[in-house]
Amino acid sequence: MELQLEYFLLLGAALFCIGIYGLVTSRNAVRVLMSVELLLNAVNLNLMGFSNFLDPVEIKGQVFTVFVITVAAAEAAVGLAIILAIYRNRDTIDMEQFNLLKW
Amino acid sequence: MDFSSTVASQLNAGVILPEGLVIITLMVVLVGDIILGRNASRQLSYVAIAGLLGSVVALYFQWDNSQTIGFLGGFNGDNLSIVFRGTIVLSTAFTILMSIRYIQQSGTALAEFVSILLTATLGAMFLCGANDLVMIFLSLETLSISSYLLTGYTKRDPRSNEAALKYLLIGAASSAIFLYGVSLLYGLSGGEIRLDAIAAQLTDLSSGQSLGVAIALVFAIAGIAFKISAVPFHQWTPDVYEGSPTPVVAFLSVGSKAAGFALAIRLLVTVFGQVTPEWQFIFTALAVLSMILGNVVALAQTSMKRMLAYSSIAQAGFVMIGLVAGSDDGYASMVFYLFIYLFMNLGAFTCVILFSLRTGTDQIAEYSGLYQKDPLLTLALSICLLSLGGIPPLAGFFGKIYLFWVGWQAGLYGLVLLGLVTSVVSIYYYIRVVKMMVVKEPHEMSDTVKNYPPIRWNLPGMRPLQVGLVLSLVATTLAGILSNPLFNLANSSISNSSVFQTASTPVILSESIINRQSLSE
Amino acid sequence: MNLAEGVQIVSFGILAVMMLGAALGVVLLNQIVYSAFLLGGVFMSISGLYILLNADFVAAAQILIYVGAVNVLILFAIMLVNKKEEFKPVRNRWIRQGATALVCVGLLALLSTMVLATPWAVDTTTVNASSTIIQIGKHFFSDFLLPFELASVLLLMAMVGAIILARRDFIPERKATTTEVETALTLPERPRELSGS
């Protein structure tokens, strides 16, 4: 019995679903941002699994993962800056309170 | 032969010359702002426009370039991408013209705004030519992250903050979902990154792979539909359009959307060629929903920005008819319509900006009786709105006719009929604004228009706005009468593009690499 | 089963349980600070999983960037917006949570079916287990050169933009009249409740 590709993919799928759940139900804006990070990590797990089992010579998946990590860091920085700006104006980070714009 | 020299000889870095010009302009603006200080920011934005026009010239000289693949398959600068990149660059140039006065009036720094806008342009341009998964993801994120920043740029305004937060959270989630689909593509193809290589691996769908491909397709479409704001992935659109600075809205509704369509064509046609009926079915559903919901909800809007937001959702629905048709003509009609849409939509936004700068409001009711005070603005806004609605001699009419004709040829009778019906609905709400501006009696003028400030074009930053207004007015009027060159442009961009001869692409590529190697020796 | 494989399986199990538990904690706990620390736990477990996947460089990068930068940034943000905030209860919230949970379980079932049904083309080539850094570096300067350069522009602009949005700045022209101060740095359009009706 060895480590199989499927284990990692299942783990990634589970993490992805947890991230989606957090994304939809969280009320704290910072927690929503954390859920996005979970989603990106689930994708990374997928990519790394594929890279190791399907593409062990070229390991393009690992390079892809490095790019995803980079983008995730940039996205987190921008997201937190926006959250800070909105907190200064509105004094809250409750997603339910953000209803100035309504359709 | 060592590593570096082999790579350098095969890069074919010339294909990204237009993007290179944009990057140089970006650096000039950013560094120039630091050195020269705030007073020079208006001059710097003219520099940015000059750089963008230079990029258009560079794009022109790349037309019909024989070696389109650059960076070892990472970038494909074929004619299709050139048309889309040109559309995006022009939309940015117009956006800068209209944002100079707007941003200064909001009291924020102009040079940073321009440089973030240039980054968004850069991401959108690379997205149009991206030829492997990493490049697609990275350019998509460059475009998205800069769009979040632009949306929240007026940071003292709670509406802008809120729009930015919603856009960021929904956008980040949708790009994560898109990325999950992309990672499945990497796995299903057995470790391939390049689009044509993936397509070559995905030919055999009988053995259990079909579910994986279906999930990858749905996830990828979710990401694309978010970018082109197709219903039901449109929830962010009205909020972001209302809350963000109006020039940003203009860019998002044209530049960002054009990039989304370029991505859709390239990804769907190349990678998902095997499952064409499936994605055409999904896009039919998206087109139907977008046309109905966009046009019907736009009827009820009282704010001009929100009305244009819903109308842009509806316009995306019309463009999707060309995508569903799936023929060369279909893609050509998309290119043609997007190019016309660039002028008429940006013209409409220029008018909205001008009105809101002079009066401080964008309520539709406040436009009543504007004809007596400002005939030029009324004329331009009327022409642009009528063109958006598709009234005959104007450009929008020919674009729509072409889309519907192509759809009819492809046998999409229901979709075309629905398009016709919803166009009639859309004409109603566009005409409503025009009628309000033109035919009102003097005593029915709104208070805002009664207190309309005297028209002064010599205020700082107003002159570029005037130039943009007149240019888009002329383009919208003339593009209808002289649509033949544009039509030929769109057609040749499709017929000369390697995307639509997928089978022959790898051969061309390997030949070009062989040629290159023989040249370097 | 030889010793190496046993160790691999056991450590995979431990890391998987740690990661899932911490991830559930991130989305379910009430205290946002606990969530932030548990997020660090998720990142570290994933880094361990990367080592099991023969990816030493990415494992290190994961720790350095996610734990060292992103997680710390999130903690800073939590401290900056540190207000004791009672979220007003929203009626029928549990219905929404339950529905979301159902959808997520359904999605998980779908994805698991897909993972198990697809015949992955596993490549059994044995590679000599030297460092992956050389291979990754070669990629960065050959076929991934363009994304690599684009990432630099992206990071530069994310930095500039984040600074612009997050810094407190002076409103220009302090001596202007109060109404103008109020409208500075906001959209030139008035809010709807003021302008409408």
TrEMBL record, chain A:
Pfam families for this protein: Oxidored_q2 (PF00420)
Alphabetized UniProt keyword annotations: Membrane, NAD, NADP, Oxidoreductase, Plastoquinone, Quinone, Thylakoid, Translocase, Transmembrane, Transmembrane helix, Transport
Topology in membrane: Multi-pass membrane protein
Domain of life: Bacteria
TM helices/strands, residue ranges: 6-24, 66-87
Main localization of the protein described in the UniProt heading: membrane
Chain's gene name: nuoK
Function: NDH-1 shuttles electrons from an unknown electron donor, via FMN and iron-sulfur (Fe-S) centers, to quinones in the respiratory and/or the photosynthetic chain. The immediate electron acceptor for the enzyme in this species is believed to be plastoquinone. Couples the redox reaction to proton translocation, and thus conserves the redox energy in a proton gradient. Cyanobacterial NDH-1 also plays a role in inorganic carbon-concentration.
Biological classification of the source: Bacteria, Bacillati, Cyanobacteriota, Cyanophyceae, Spirulinales
Record field: catalytic activity: a plastoquinone + NADPH + (n+1) H(+)(in) = a plastoquinol + NADP(+) + n H(+)(out); a plastoquinone + NADH + (n+1) H(+)(in) = a plastoquinol + NAD(+) + n H(+)(out)
The EC number(s) this enzyme carries: 7.1.1.-
Compartments, record wording: Cellular thylakoid membrane; Membrane
Name of protein: NAD(P)H-quinone oxidoreductase subunit 4L
Subunit structure: NDH-1 can be composed of about 15 different subunits; different subcomplexes with different compositions have been identified which probably have different functions.
Molecular-function GO terms, alphabetical: NADH dehydrogenase (quinone) (non-electrogenic) activity
Family: Belongs to the complex I subunit 4L family.
EC primary class: translocase
Automatic annotation (TrEMBL), chain B:
Record keywords: Membrane, NAD, NADP, Plastoquinone, Quinone, Thylakoid, Translocase, Transmembrane, Transmembrane helix, Transport
EC numbers on record: 7.1.1.-
Localization per Swiss-Prot or TrEMBL: Cellular thylakoid membrane; Endomembrane system; Membrane
InterPro entries: NADH-Q_OxRdtase_suN/2 (IPR010096), ND/Mrp_TM (IPR001750), Ndh2_N (IPR045693)
All copies of domain NAD(P)H-quinone oxidoreductase subunit 2 N-terminal, residue ranges: 13-100
Pfam families listed in its UniProt record: Ndh2_N, Proton_antipo_M
Topology relative to the membrane: Multi-pass membrane protein
Main location: membrane
Domain NADH:quinone oxidoreductase/Mrp antiporter transmembrane: 130-425
Transmembrane helix found in the keyword field: yes
Stretches that traverse the bilayer: 20-37, 44-63, 83-103, 110-127, 133-153, 165-188, 208-228, 248-269, 281-300, 307-325, 331-355, 376-398, 410-431, 465-487
Reactions accelerated catalytically: a plastoquinone + NADPH + (n+1) H(+)(in) = a plastoquinol + NADP(+) + n H(+)(out); a plastoquinone + NADH + (n+1) H(+)(in) = a plastoquinol + NAD(+) + n H(+)(out)
NCBIfam families per record: NDH_I_N, PRK02504.1
Functional summary from the UniProt entry: NDH-1 shuttles electrons from an unknown electron donor, via FMN and iron-sulfur (Fe-S) centers, to quinones in the respiratory and/or the photosynthetic chain. The immediate electron acceptor for the enzyme in this species is believed to be plastoquinone. Couples the redox reaction to proton translocation, and thus conserves the redox energy in a proton gradient. Cyanobacterial NDH-1 also plays a role in inorganic carbon-concentration. NDH-1 shuttles electrons from NAD(P)H, via FMN and iron-sulfur (Fe-S) centers, to quinones in the respiratory chain. The immediate electron acceptor for the enzyme in this species is believed to be plastoquinone. Couples the redox reaction to proton translocation (for every two electrons transferred, four hydrogen ions are translocated across the cytoplasmic membrane), and thus conserves the redox energy in a proton gradient.
Assembly and binders: NDH-1 can be composed of about 15 different subunits; different subcomplexes with different compositions have been identified which probably have different functions.
From TrEMBL, chain C:
Membrane topology summary: Multi-pass membrane protein
EC numbers, comma separated: 7.1.1.-
Record field: transmembrane: 6-29, 36-53, 59-81, 101-122, 144-166
UniProt subcellular location: Cell membrane
Catalysis performed (reactions): a plastoquinone + NADH + (n+1) H(+)(in) = a plastoquinol + NAD(+) + n H(+)(out); a plastoquinone + NADPH + (n+1) H(+)(in) = a plastoquinol + NADP(+) + n H(+)(out)
A GO molecular-function annotation: NADH dehydrogenase (quinone) (non-electrogenic) activity
Secretion signal, residue range per the UniProt entry: none
Keywords for this protein: Cell membrane, Membrane, NAD, Oxidoreductase, Quinone, Transmembrane, Transmembrane helix
Location (main, coarse): membrane
Stated role: NDH-1 shuttles electrons from NADH, via FMN and iron-sulfur (Fe-S) centers, to quinones in the respiratory chain. Couples the redox reaction to proton translocation (for every two electrons transferred, four hydrogen ions are translocated across the cytoplasmic membrane), and thus conserves the redox energy in a proton gradient.
Family designation: Belongs to the complex I subunit 6 family.
Protein name: NADH-quinone oxidoreductase subunit J
Source species of the chain: Spirulina subsalsa FACHB-351
